[in-house]
Amino acid sequence: VSGSWADRSPLHDAAFQGRLLSLKTLIAQGFNVNLVTTDRVSALHEACLGGHVACVKLLLENGAQVNAVTIDGLTPLFNACCSGSAACVNVLLEFGAKPQLRNHPSPIHEAVKRGHRECMEILLAHEVDIDQEDMQHGTPLYVACTHQRIDCVKKLLELGANVNMGKLLDTPLHAAARKSSVEVVVLLTDYGANLKCRNAEFKCPLDLAIPKSKVEQVLLLREGPASLAQLCRLCIRKHLGRSCLYAVHKLHLPEPLENFLLYR
Question: Which residues, listed in sequence order, are joined to residue 36 by a DSSP beta bridge?
């Protein structure tokens, strides 16, 4: 977190370094747990950035503001997603952290950007919109493709993310083609990504692929009509919507067919 640290307190240092006993002592001595720096960084922000769940819990139990915001708009939850501490994310949510504050940096986008899949899944389980479009970063799927976080791409698609929603007119497939990520391109096209979508520069994903690269080869191979099996899979998944992962089991289909629908 950027800014001036001239007014950092011993409480901030103990929280950031994960020194639980020191933190307990300072609180017992009367230090205000909501003391902030000139950049409005609290000890709770620091504990979350360090991924120190015991310190996070102690501060919250002693009245730390769970949705405190720094001068840069960062919340403790954002910092926990930055550090990749799923335990901190869970504790913050238990104490009433808001998964998303309007007009503030997005925790789920930060988790995806850094490849912290578990943090991302926890936020999605707390009803964060899987297709939430951040003006600066686009959707979580777009961020995952831009930063080539393949585990996050797989899980987002599995949970029903819109395969064509990216950043304005730029789709996740544009991002994957731009990054020359063959595995991500294959995943997206398997899930029905539109190869003909054009971005603000009127370019389709194929236009962004490096000539004679593997990505270009994959995109060219998939330009033709999809197989009947693929069309059926996409149609059934579209009908079931985001509940597809859970609804498929209720159809009592033969195991090979269920696995096919769920890309297993």
Answer: 42
Q: Which of 113, 58, 63, 105 is nearest to 84 (CA)?
A: 113
> How many structural domains does the chain have?
3
Per-residue pLDDT of the chain (264 residues; tens, 9 = 90+): 334 445 789 999 999 999 999 999 999 999 999 999 989 999 999 999 999 999 999 999 999 999 999 999 999 999 999 999 999 999 999 999 999 888 899 999 999 999 999 999 999 999 899 999 988 999 999 999 999 999 999 999 999 999 999 999 999 999 999 999 999 999 999 999 999 999 999 999 999 999 999 999 999 998 878 889 888 888 888 888 777 777 888 888 898 888 888 888
Residue 54's Cβ-side half-sphere holds a number of Cα atoms within 13 Å equal to 9
Residues 216 and 257 in one domain: no
How many CA atoms are closer than 13 Å to the CA of 131, on its beta-carbon side?
A: 12
Q: Are 59 and 33 a contacting pair, CB within 8 Å? A: yes
Q: Are 250 and 243 in contact (CB under 8 A)?
A: no
What's the domain range around 145? 129-224
Tell me which DSSP letter residue 126 carries: T
* Count of residues making up the chain: 264
CB-CB contact of 148 with 127 (8 Å): no
Q: How far apart are CA 228 and CA 170, in angstroms?
A: 28
Residues 67, 69, 75: CA angle, nearest 5 degrees: 60
Grouping H, G, I as helix, E, B as strand and the rest as coil, residue 149 is coil
- Are residues 88 and 37 located together in one domain of the fold? yes
pTM here is: 0.89
